[in-house]
Amino acid sequence: MNRTRSTLKQGKRRKVKWFRVTLFFLVILLAGGATYGYSVYHNVAKAVSKMTSPLSREVSAKRETKVEFNNSDPISILMVGVDERKGDSGRTDSMIVVTINPKTKSTKLLSIPRDTRTLLVNNDKPNKQRYDKINAAYAYGGINETIDTVENFLNIPIDYYIKVNMESFKDIVDAVGGINVNNKYAFELDGVSLKKGPQHLNGIEALEYARMRHQDPLGDFGRQQRQQEVISKIVAKGKSFSTLTKYDDILKALEDNIKTNLTLDDMIGIQSTYKPAAEKIESLAMDGEGKILNNGIWYYLVDDETRQELSNQLREQLGLGQETVASIDSYSSN
């Protein structure tokens, strides 16, 4: 069954919130250091060091030189949510490309649907390229292949990434003392039963609430809405003084479930230099159509013309000249 453009746009209005509240997890580390003084800042620095995971390359092949915060260079960040379980490498549930230009004081967000069909690219293994859903790139080659694939799909450089493990929902929800939600559908998943209506969720319940997909009429889009709801509720609890006193538990949950190639110095640099870019945030839509191909698999298909238009907008945002995107035979079943 095809998913219409109007269905995709249901999630568009929530992209800005998803971006802000996810980045909040990192920003709150700096705020905590300023609030509680050196001892807490020291713990924050230790936590960030455990979260830091460099890429296999220092600079994107689509850039000539590394971006410099001191020069106010426009930057790009790929934010991904990954559902990793024991014995499973996982796939990306959410994928947002964030391009930030402090000179124009603007930020553009582009959400890539998880079922988008494209060429999976791994620059470290050029002979392993294949067509598949874009969320499979993580299962095959981790964050490096995910970034290489997105760069090829949009013909833009990805400078930084933030990967959030969905398991963090469980740990962080427990750290803030649980959250209140208004569940639209009663369901059971992995031994957890949730009733319809308002209720208080602990960490395990919140994780299943965020994971449920097949029993939701909106499928993946309904799950994305609940994931965003859980994150926003965590943030709301995190703003209270009583919750901030549990910062040790929150830091532990963050360091166990977030990976990024941003260092603490990078985070401080972004806060000081790129803050004006939050004055204007624009969400871009990726139009396409759902279709079952000859192999019997449902994909979200985005044509080359649409990819070119998006690439042009993002490259302009990054201060780069326009280039032609590589053609992808989206309707092939090979």
TrEMBL record:
Domain of life: Bacteria
Record has Membrane as a keyword: yes
Protein name, as recorded: LytR family transcriptional attenuator
Membrane-spanning segments: none
A biological process from GO: cell wall organization
Keyword Nucleotide-binding: no
Pfam families per UniProt: LytR_cpsA_psr
Keyword terms of this UniProt record: Membrane, Signal-anchor, Transmembrane, Transmembrane helix
InterPro entries in the record: LytR/CpsA/Psr_CW_biosynth (IPR050922), LytR_CpsA_psr (IPR004474)
Domain Cell envelope-related transcriptional attenuator: 91-239
Family according to the record: Belongs to the LytR/CpsA/Psr (LCP) family.
